[in-house]
Amino acid sequence: MTSPSHSQFWRFDNRPEANINDSTFSLQQRELPPLEEGQLLVKNLILSMDATNRLWLGEREELYMEPISLGDSMRGFGLCQIVKSNSRLYQEGQLVSSLTEWAEYSILDANAVQAFVAPKDMPLDLAFGVMSIAGPTAYHGLLNIAHPRPGETVVVTAASGAVGCLAGQIAKLSRCHVVGTAGSDAKCRYLVEELGFDAAINYRDANIEDALRQACPNGIDIQFENVGGSILDSCLKLMNNNGRVVICGLISMYNSAQNVPGPYMFHNSIMKRLKIEGFVILDHAAEFPAMQRYLAQWIQDGSIKFKLHSHQGIEHASTALQSLYTGENNGKVLVKL
């Protein structure tokens, strides 16, 4: 495989005060340095756009990883093919997944990547979209933290997103009553009519607390939280004794430079004897292969469905990420290089 000498990449230029915009990044070109011992030169095939990317662009001190410095390449999770290897761990041509760059080509530490094998007859973009980050996040949060039991009520916020739709479907496989929230009537219909949710609430139009009471007549046993803010508070009011609250994401707060007050109903953690646990899926990378086997089986046998929203070309990466915060996305957002 011919090694390139240059690569296009997205440079982080301006910290957004609120929403990411067209001045946040710029598309640049750079020369690629020679490989050092233990490094890999990879071609980035598919980039995953994830809500957590926004956190890396701020200056918060309490992050799970170092924020991106101005002038550096934007980072993201990606599916990569090895162009050149200076490590005994991986061979040229092999597929790997990793935290990489928004770039045509990147140089990665061989110890920081994982081999990626797509299931037979499954398209590569679908395999990566489900199995790389979104699927393990949904699987671990729901099954390893919440431990759903048949007949329990599960509420998933941002349920039409990549993680939320999988968490809800896994809850249905666990024989639970599942309610999702989403930002449009069309997304709510998709959750109920195509994914099998028992109910879905358009949080933009409904009185969220009243709608939740109607959709969850027996209260809430598990709250799979991707949004935060007032929706989280409404759910905390309706939690049953010994309920579990899984904090997967808080996207409603990511565009704020200041800490957001709340939740105001946090005292219910005592009154209802709640278990509240947050997690970062990167801490559980060693468990990915086991989770991926289940995810692949469920996709292949039709037990779960998954929608991709793909953008073609590295030049569309900034626009693709912005769509996560405007509601314009319709499924798992990927950029295919």
TrEMBL record:
<dbReference type="InterPro" id="IPR045010">
    <property type="entry name" value="MDR_fam"/>
</dbReference>
<keyword id="KW-0560">Oxidoreductase</keyword>
<dbReference type="InterPro" id="IPR020843">
    <property type="entry name" value="ER"/>
</dbReference>
<dbReference type="InterPro" id="IPR013149">
    <property type="entry name" value="ADH-like_C"/>
</dbReference>
<dbReference type="Pfam" id="PF00107">
    <property type="entry name" value="ADH_zinc_N"/>
</dbReference>
<dbReference type="InterPro" id="IPR041694">
    <property type="entry name" value="ADH_N_2"/>
</dbReference>
<dbReference type="Pfam" id="PF16884">
    <property type="entry name" value="ADH_N_2"/>
</dbReference>
<protein>
    <submittedName>
        <fullName>NADP-dependent oxidoreductase</fullName>
    </submittedName>
</protein>
<feature type="domain" description="Enoyl reductase (ER)">
    <location>
        <begin position="18"/>
        <end position="335"/>
    </location>
</feature>
